[in-house]
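User: Fold both of these, please.

Assistant: Here is the first one.
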Amino acid sequence: MALIIATALAAGVAPAALGGATALAAPTQVTGAAAASSGTVVQQGGPLVVPSGEEGPVTTRVKVAQYGATSERLQARLLLPSIEYNAGDEDHSFDTSIAATCAVNGGAFQPCPWGSGDWGSVAVLPTTTTVNDLTYDIRLDASSSARKYGTVTATLEVLSEEGVVHARGPVSFTFVQGTPEADLRTTVLARDKTGVLWQYPSSGHADKPLRARQRIGGGWNAYTSLTTLTYRSAAGEGDLVARDKDGVLWYYEGSGNPDAPFKPRVRVGGGWNAYTAITGRNRGLVARDKAGVLWEYAPTHRDDSVIFYPRRMVGGGWNAYTAITGQGAGHQAMARDTSGVLWSYGYPYAPSGGPYGPRVKVGGGWNAYNALAWTQKLDGESYNDLLARDGSGRLWLYKTVYRDNVSIPTTRKQIGWGWEIYNAIL
């Protein structure tokens, strides 16, 4: 499919994100000698590199020299070519992933509203009274989804209200991967041996996936189990549950504040000391009892303290595993057996009566690790990654591939050391 994303001083309706629906009249289409450009357009410094993410806006300056123009008000437009995109992209719309402001001749920046017209998606540049030389400053602020556009070369035209083109030339933008916005980056939580809970926001970059840790608070040694319920983001989103030493389960809802990411706890109920393992699954829980029977607690999706439906038995034999880690925001799980073999459980597409489909063998040697935990979007490249800590305190990131209805860890990369100070990682 082709996405037409032309920017122009012209036409169309501006989305609400850029100031509401504003109808703009398209310039007259002129052909022949009247449409011929007699001026020049020069982009200073070459193509503008635009980080797609939270870096903020960047600006390019365009110098326009005109010849033979009469004194009148001038319009300007950027015309972009068709751009091919993958239909599976998160965002197919140029005008929703790029915010633009523009200035002419050193004036104040103002929104360049996007709309649609004969050229596709369009943006409006400020008008001005004709002078021999013009300066346009074009400032773009791109979201993470804009990186898919790559290099885009537009045509800047300066024309009269009657549609006579006085200058025409190329203006290029190169969209590169920046730092994903906070709500697109996850966090890793770790509790140290003194009971302090820390969060490591992901960076969104493969070379150094974790940022410096941030202290959440103390007193978390009161809990014998910590489990993620939902996707956690660096924007302070994400829920978890914690079981205390008396077997009471507590619910911590994400606050949306990265500096204090959890709201005050809410009591779920007692009796959870019956379980030897608790892990998340798609906003709910699975729990293994002392006899090796696995139970599922499906989420109610309610806003009150009734967090889960009554438990439902999955099946026995789960004492074969020494570690079970599930996806709080997803449907999959990894389980390591007593011989060190790792197994992957996926979503049961065929009706099975349980939370998981048939297991798939990953491989042996996983007894080298004393902690396993799922993570998502840690380096901006994958949704289903696995963290593993070895006996020396080194932290490893396993990239995964989706095969046979499950996620399979493949290559690993060390992303930290000194993690032996933590007694829980999630």
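And the second sequence with its predicted structure:
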Amino acid sequence: MEQILGNDWTITPAGGSTGEAYYAHHEGKRLFLKRNSSPFLAVLSAEGIVPKLVWTKRMENGDVITAQQWLEGRELKPEEIKHPRVAQLLSKIHHSSELLDLLMRLGKQPLDPIDYLNDLKKQEQCSSFINTQIEIHQALRYLEQQLPHVQNQKKVVCHSDMNHNNWLLTDADQLYLIDWDNAMVADPAMDLGMILHWYIPEEEWDVWLDTYGIELDEPLLVRMHWYIVAQTVSFIQWHKNRREESEAARWLEDLKRLMVKLGIINI
């Protein structure tokens, strides 16, 4: 990074799972740098969904470095996800034909639920985390049984990680959704299921979705259930592959609670 900005800049890691993000500052100038961020970032910036993209530079080794405004702010607290502004911004993203068109032109293929399920099955076949086998098997069987209800749905741009720490509220009161490395073209129920199950009391789902712009009905409920189960299985497998067994075990407990709530298994 120093070869781009010069030695006068102070550059520090910004954390995250990829280790490819950095903070940089020099004489009052501040930037957020990322290595090999998607070209999708430019249109997200233009739409006001992420902080402004300042520049993009290609390195001799082929790496692409992006620099965004470094804005003072904080991640949303879990209880703040209920705020109408979150529903409104997510609706803007899901209903943007510009975002969808660009992501498709970048070669992102729509997520087919059957392919998603088959990937989960393949991951489990190579798993060595024996303690998850029974619960994962039950979850995969549920996903297979419910598969006809999630096929052939309209696809939109999905962020696919609705964690509250990906929602940035700046000191200037601007709300952004950041960390788009795992963006995909998928059923909006993927994002909606995560955000509702994780953060919104069930008795408030109708109101939240009304702000988003749709009504809660049985088909949407079934699709949200399908995706939240599938994603929870995926999170377990991701941590297993990284040998983060305590995190995998924590997600396994979440999966058990979810399946009990949905009536997939009994206590």
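The mean pLDDT is 87.
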